[in-house]
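Lab notebook, bench 4. Still working through the backlog of constructs that have no structural model yet. Next entry is a single chain of 260 residues. Request: give me the structure tokens for it.
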Amino acid sequence: MLKNLLEGQQEGEQKPHADTKGNAWQRVCTMVRTRRCIVMTTISACAVVLVVTLLLSLPPRDEATGTSERLPEDGNISPQFTYESTNNTASGKLRIVNRRTWLAQPAVKPSNGLHHPLPYVVILHTASETCFTQAACIFLVRHTQSFHIESNGWNDIGYSFLVGGDGVVYEGRGWDTEGAFAFGYNKKAIGIAFIGTFTSELPTPKQLYAGKQLIDLGVELGKISPAYKLLAHRQLSPTESPGLAFFELLKTWPHWAETP
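Model written out:
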């Protein structure tokens, strides 16, 4: 009996040891599973973040054409500027943004060329908002081109050049291609449109200065006659362009002509 009691006591002492050992193993397994879940969750979260980051970094795509297109941000388009020298500017340079830089649509079909030097310069306004940064001006130039092509049915943007409130010139049809801005004068004039509406206010000082620089550059390049006549759009067509306020100022510019 004593032997059985001792054996029972030994068994009773051994059982807690076995239970403790089993509990420890369960705790280890639970810890391993927990850590494995944490690792897998972390890896999955990192993968999701990586995919989202890659998707956000892709440039927007034009659904119609399937091509990537991103507007230049203000301050990032200067390497694409075409710089032309002039004789009467403080910096000696006029900044002209070419068609490629402002992401112009291709012309629907080629227009006629011009015979230089041209005897007229016609000043217009776009009758739109004014822009004060390069990015904003590019947006308006592109909108103007779309309107001229899609609503007016023209081959391209109508103006030879546009001048923004940022003091930068934006190439339209350029020096050598016939424009679509004043009936009867498209073949013999350069059409310069100032971005904005100038019925009661004037273009910015930088805008006015750049416009004068552009005309002087045209004379210097032989595109505009040294004896050119400066005309407002309203003198040639039934329109308010370039706005009453600007029209009065134009009368004080060199080469202003009361009549064509």
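Notes after review: Residues 86 and 92 are 5 Å apart (CA to CA). The beta strands are 81-85, 93-97, 118-125, 161-163, 169-171, 189-194, 224-232. Flag for follow-up if needed.
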